[in-house]
């Protein structure tokens, strides 16, 4: 991707190619003021004003762009996102509107993941001008956070193991003077036994750890953000089929969201005491791998029978949530690529949201809707706790019967969050199986901006 600062700029009257916004119903009126060659050009390109379509319009010695939008006076995040991929490098401005929310889609559409290409094809920037320069820094921060999630998730597990997640946490924390603590080795086994058990079969270079970031004034409200950092998930001894393992580099997508949210909070200097926790492991197979039927002791003192080693994400999160709860945060949010059941229920685009408090759930849903980052609430239904019963331990990590898999996973996590804490859980896919305007195939941030805008509204001074 080009330098994000070159992708949107303040409009100071510089030379730029005009973009005309047209609704389907407004096309006839627009054509009345056009010359015969211009109308002929639009007809030749079969431009009918459909949202997302565009055409090139001759303008004297140059040209302009006509693009269809659903509403010309209320632009969405993604309504212009096709254009940067279709137009040549250059500087553009909207002819009769401010881009507003569409600025983020314009920047995000120019994301490229080229780390492993031996001969990447550099492209010049498509720059969009705005008459609202105060909005630029916030848009660029959100675009950078989105790109961070995409980069981390797209990177293969060999180059994005627990050590690499730790390095990224350090890089995010350092510019803000945040403190990073990492627990590994014997200390991890003693203090966070479930994180250690899940990750102990990995190679030494991918050894498990708990990564913590602390930032902000201790007098400010404490907010904990937890992200599942399973850098690769083989399924463990309950091994996945090859088709199920193919995308498991993305199983640290929750950690990517947590780190990106931390970056947004610190960049904005939000008045909170931030505590970020990333349990980073690889769920590998070796002679010392944890087994189906084992009983693990957790940091909370709760014993967990292992019904399935492929339900490992909730184990590492259990210890991390327990640690986060010990400092009594006012709010706790976790992100995790936790269950296939959430994807069956809601598909790839909608993160499943679970929350203890209705007000928090509504605030997250409303924030996501407002910024085109929707999520959908599923129930923390107490009646399904019976699916997690164990005959020999306090709880089983795998629900029985195959019903309500996303809910039973969330109920498992709920057991490790102390009572009285306002807690929300995102079961997110962190992946886009097919491209959409501004959102390429691959890793993606789903639920990140919903959480960020909720936090900003709740805690801005």
TrEMBL record:
<feature type="domain" description="Cytosol aminopeptidase">
    <location>
        <begin position="308"/>
        <end position="315"/>
    </location>
</feature>
<keyword id="KW-0031">Aminopeptidase</keyword>
<dbReference type="Pfam" id="PF00883">
    <property type="entry name" value="Peptidase_M17"/>
</dbReference>
<dbReference type="GO" id="GO:0006508">
    <property type="term" value="P:proteolysis"/>
</dbReference>
<dbReference type="InterPro" id="IPR043472">
    <property type="entry name" value="Macro_dom-like"/>
</dbReference>
<dbReference type="GO" id="GO:0030145">
    <property type="term" value="F:manganese ion binding"/>
</dbReference>
<dbReference type="InterPro" id="IPR000819">
    <property type="entry name" value="Peptidase_M17_C"/>
</dbReference>
<keyword id="KW-0464">Manganese</keyword>
<protein>
    <submittedName>
        <fullName>Leucyl aminopeptidase</fullName>
        <ecNumber>3.4.11.1</ecNumber>
    </submittedName>
</protein>
<keyword id="KW-0378">Hydrolase</keyword>
<dbReference type="GO" id="GO:0070006">
    <property type="term" value="F:metalloaminopeptidase activity"/>
</dbReference>
<comment type="similarity">
    <text>Belongs to the peptidase M17 family.</text>
</comment>
<keyword id="KW-0645">Protease</keyword>
<dbReference type="InterPro" id="IPR048816">
    <property type="entry name" value="Peptidase_M17_N_1"/>
</dbReference>
<dbReference type="InterPro" id="IPR011356">
    <property type="entry name" value="Leucine_aapep/pepB"/>
</dbReference>
<dbReference type="GO" id="GO:0005737">
    <property type="term" value="C:cytoplasm"/>
</dbReference>
<dbReference type="Pfam" id="PF21337">
    <property type="entry name" value="Peptidase_M17_N_1"/>
</dbReference>
């Amino acid at each position: 991707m080009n330098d994000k600062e070159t992708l949107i700029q303040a409009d100071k009257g510089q030379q730029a190619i005009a973009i005309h916004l047209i609704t389907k119903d407004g096309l006839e009126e627009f054509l009345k003021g056009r010359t015969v060659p211009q109308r002929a050009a639009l007809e030749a390109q079969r431009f009918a004003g459909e949202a997302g379509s565009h055409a090139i319009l001759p303008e004297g010695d140059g040209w302009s762009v006509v693009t269809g939008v659903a509403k010309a006076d209320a632009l969405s995040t993604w309504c212009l996102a096709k254009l940067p991929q279709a137009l040549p490098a250059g500087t553009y401005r909207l002819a009769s509107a401010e881009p507003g929310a569409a600025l983020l889609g314009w920047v995000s559409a120019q994301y490229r993941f080229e780390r492993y290409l031996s001969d990447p094809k550099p492209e010049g920037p498509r720059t969009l001008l705005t008459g609202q320069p105060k909005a630029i820094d916030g848009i660029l921060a959100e675009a950078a956070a989105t790109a961070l999630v995409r980069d981390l998730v797209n990177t293969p597990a060999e180059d994005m193991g627990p050590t690499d997640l730790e390095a990224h946490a350090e890089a995010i924390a350092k510019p803000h003077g945040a403190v990073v603590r990492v627990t590994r080795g014997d200390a991890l086994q003693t203090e966070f036994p479930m994180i250690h058990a899940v990750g102990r079969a990995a190679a030494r270079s991918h050894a498990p750890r708990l990564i913590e970031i602390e930032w902000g004034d201790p007098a400010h409200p404490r907010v904990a953000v937890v992200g599942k950092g399973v850098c690769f998930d083989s399924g463990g001894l309950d091994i996945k089929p090859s088709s199920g393992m193919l995308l498991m580099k993305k199983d640290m997508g929750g950690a990517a969201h947590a780190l990106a949210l931390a970056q947004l909070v610190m960049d904005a200097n939000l008045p909170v005491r931030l505590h970020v926790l990333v349990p980073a492991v690889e769920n590998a197979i070796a002679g010392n791998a944890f087994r189906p039927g084992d009983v693990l002791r957790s940091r909370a003192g709760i014993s967990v029978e292992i019904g399935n080693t492929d339900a490992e994400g909730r184990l590492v999160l259990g210890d991390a949530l327990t640690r986060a709860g010990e400092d009594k945060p006012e709010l706790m949010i976790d992100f995790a690529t936790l269950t296939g059941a959430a994807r069956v229920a809601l598909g790839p685009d909608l993160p499943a949201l679970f929350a203890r408090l209705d007000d928090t759930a509504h605030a997250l849903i409303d924030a996501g809707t407002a910024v085109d980052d929707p999520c959908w609430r599923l129930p923390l239904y107490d009646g399904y706790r019976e699916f997690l019963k164990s005959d020999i331990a306090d709880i089983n990590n795998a629900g029985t019967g195959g019903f309500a898999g996303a809910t039973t996973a969330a109920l498992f996590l709920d057991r490790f969050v102390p009572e009285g804490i306002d807690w929300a859980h995102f079961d997110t896919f962190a992946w886009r199986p097919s491209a959409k305007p501004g959102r390429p195939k691959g890793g993606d941030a789903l639920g990140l901006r919903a959480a960020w805008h909720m936090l900003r509204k709740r805690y801005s001074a």
